[in-house]
Amino acid sequence: MAGVDQLDQIFFEGVADGQLRVQQCSDCGAHQFYPRVVCKHCGSEQLKWISASGRGRVASFSVVRRGVSAEFEAPYIVALITLEEGVTMMSHLVDVEPEQVASGMAVRVAFRPVGGADIRPVFLRAEVS
Q: Which CATH fold would you assign to the domain 55-125?
C-alpha cells in the first residue's frame, strides 16, 4: 500500500482485516489516534494496538458540494468522529444524506474504497437502542 510507513502499518493491516485499530498505552491506559511512537498523555513508549469498538459520534462535519476530483463525486460528507475509546479521527460519512447529519449522531465503522483508493474506514449512521 503506497504511503504506508512502519508506524501506521498495523493500522492499515487492521483495515484490510475489517478491524479499526487504535493505540493504547500500557502504562496509563489512554488511547490515541493517530499513531505515534510515544503516548501523548504520559510520554511512555509502551504502546500496543487494540481493536476499537468502531462505535462513535459525529463531533463535527462538513458537506463538500464541489468534488476535488472525479474520484470524489460531490456531495460527500467529511466528519470528525469521536470513538467510544475517546479518540477523534477524520473520515467520511456514507449512506446518509447531508441533510440527515447532525453533530452528536451515533455512527459505526464500515470499510470501503474511498476516492478510487484502497479500503478505508468510513462511518455509517448507527441504530441507537
A: OB fold (Dihydrolipoamide Acetyltransferase, E2P) (2.40.50)
